[in-house]
Every structure is written in C-alpha cells, then in structure tokens.
C-alpha cells in the first residue's frame, strides 16, 4: 500500500504497457480548496521502487528484526469482532446518510404531499 506524497491519500494500482504503476488523481478544484500544490495525476512505476522495498522487507523480516516486526504487526492487527463492529457502523452510517438525503430530497419537493406518509412508515 502506497500513499501519495502530495496529498497523503492511498494510491491506486494501475497497469500500463504491462507494467504496474501507482497513481493518484487529484482534481484541480480539490487541490485549490485544500491549498495543495498537487499535479493532476501522479504516477510511480512499481519497478522503480522494488529494490528499495525488497531491501526494507529483508531487514524487517531478517533474524535481527523478526521478533520486533511480528510484535509490531500483532499490535496493529484488528480483532475480528472489532472489525465486524467497525463494518456495521460504516454500513449504518451509510444508511443514515441515504435517509438524510432522501428526507432532504422530499423536503425540497412541494412540501411532500404524498411521500412523507410513506417515508414515516418506512423509518
Ligand atoms: Zn495525491
């Protein structure tokens, strides 16, 4: 997983001419709003960083650092029950946002002559 050095968002994997790339697209209007000097698209060819990544992995999982690396990974692991709870909260939040959008859309209609009754029963 790679993050963009300009905006710190996660990059997207992309294939071009049979080579793997990491890409970050950042619309100009977002860059202006967030006061970022971000190119429209940032590309990084994976082959340019493989040696560096291999070296770091070799060090992290080498005999001198292995125990520390495993402990660090275990600290960051999420309990499956906690992960399920996080997922449920995200789904609930998404439903709440949709309900809010639907209510707003209905409120914008002509004071909702027919629809509010249906919505009140659904909620
Ligand atoms: Zn970016």
What's the number of helices? 5
Shape: flat
Order of helices and strands: EEHEHHHH
Strand numbers in spatial order across the main sheet? 1-2-3
Helical proportion?
40-55%
What portion of residues belong to β-strands?
A: 5-15%
Summarize model confidence as the mean pLDDT: 86
Describe this structure in words.
By secondary structure, the chain is an alpha+beta fold. It has 2 domains: 1-77, no CATH class; 79-123. It is 53% helix and 14% strand. It contains 5 helices and 3 strands. The protein has helices at 28-33, 50-60, 66-76, 80-108, 115-122, and strands spanning 12-16, 19-25, 41-45. Strands 1-2-3 form a 3-stranded antiparallel sheet, with no helix packed on it. Strand 1 and strand 2 (19-25) form a beta hairpin. It is flat. The two termini are 40 Å apart. The mean pLDDT is 86.
Brief sketch in words of this structure:
A three-stranded antiparallel beta sheet has the order 1-2-3, with no helix packed on it. The chain has five helices and three strands.
Helix and strand arrangement:
Layout: E1 12-16, E2 19-25, H1 28-33, E3 41-45, H2 50-60, H3 66-76, H4 80-108, H5 115-122
Antiparallel strand pairs: 1-2, 2-3
The structure holds zinc ion (ZN).
Protein name: Recombinase zinc beta ribbon domain-containing protein
